[in-house]
Amino acid sequence: MVKSVHGGDVYRHPGVIDFSSNMNPLGTPESVIRAAQESMTRIVHYPDVRQEKLIRALSGYEKVPEGYLFCGNGAAEVIFAYAWALRPKQALILAPTFAEYEQALQSVGCRVRLFPLREADGYRLTADFLNAITDDLDVVVLCNPNNPTGVPVEMELMKAIIRTCRTRGVRLFTDECFQDFCEDPERMTIRNYLKEEPEIFILKAFTKRYAMAGLRLGYGMTADAGLLSQMRAAVQPWNVSIPAQEAGVAALREEGYVERARSIVKQERAYLKASLEKLGFRVFDSRANYVFFKGEKGLCEKLLPYGVMIRDCSNYHNLGEGYYRAAVRLHAENEKLIEALGMLRKNSEKPDKRI
């Protein structure tokens, strides 16, 4: 199993600019911080076990019935609850992709089959994936856009995947957490298929969209009421704290903030791609709020003295040393990353004058 190593380890590297985790570059909205702070006066009580206020707000935001929703202590709990409830025997995931899918599936004894994405295709999912969806599978897991590559699944292929899963009797789990930072998220989501395709489960989270990683709040959507009931039975009661529930409700009102972040990400992602390519790195076609690129080994460690931290992707399946992911941040911060990489490149090109 892939070792669970993540970005965002600011506790071991204090003071760095964190490009290793993909938060909204605008930071946490003030309204969200206020809501969490004000809710602290009520922590003498248990959280609302039914999460009614949060579920109602999510239903309006996602335009799905309240009965389609499940909330968890971050996206990770939702992934594990799905695996524990479904207990699949065989699953198909991409390589590379987010490690928690495999970890959750293997925790229930599921055999995980990897579908390797090819560098020659720019790590884009192609139609030959359809042939890998076989009758012996219980679930197909997709991240769209994928993590760490940022490359989305084309909608026509996604529709074909949905049809193939239906024909083969295979469930489809799709992680749409990073779609909020894509140019047209409403054209990418398969949320409108939920009613007619109850075998689909969609994962979303507040983590990246509202820069709320420390509060832990994720959610899932499906029309399969039986699966949701099993998922609720698989987690502890009161799994979402009072501050997380109140912060979530406040966050869902921040529509202008999300649109602003999307615009910034589009502009700054283009800047980072062009700047990295100018420095000689191979940059792949990410559409998310991070860039995925290839360079020399050891960049992460070499960048730390310059005060910046990027994500080493060598622990992902089907990758190795020399693959990196960097979050799209505000322009002044992005300039510091490019400046640090430029200095490293310049220093590496200096001739060795030692005798």
Largest sheet: 7 strands, mixed
What gyration radius follows from the Cα positions, in whole Å?
21 Å
Helices, by number, come to 12
Shape: globular
Spatial ordering of strands, largest sheet: 2-8-7-6-5-3-4
Mean pLDDT: 95
Strand content: 15-25%
Uncertain residue ranges:
none
Question: What is the succession of H and E elements?
Answer: EHHEHEHEHEHEHEEHHHEEHEEEH
Structural class: alpha/beta
Helix proportion range: 25-40%
N-to-C CA distance: 47 Å
Strand segment tally:
13
Write the layout of secondary structure elements.
Elements: E1 17-18, H1 30-39, H2 52-62, E2 69-72, H3 74-86, E3 90-95, H4 99-106, E4 111-116, H5 129-132, E5 139-143, H6 155-168, E6 171-175, H7 185-188, E7 200-205, E8 218-221, H8 225-234, H9 242-251, H10 255-278, E9 282-283, E10 290-294, H11 299-303, E11 308-309, E12 311-312, E13 323-327, H12 331-348
Parallel strand pairs: 1-11, 3-4, 3-5, 5-6, 6-7
Antiparallel strand pairs: 2-8, 7-8, 9-10, 10-13, 12-13
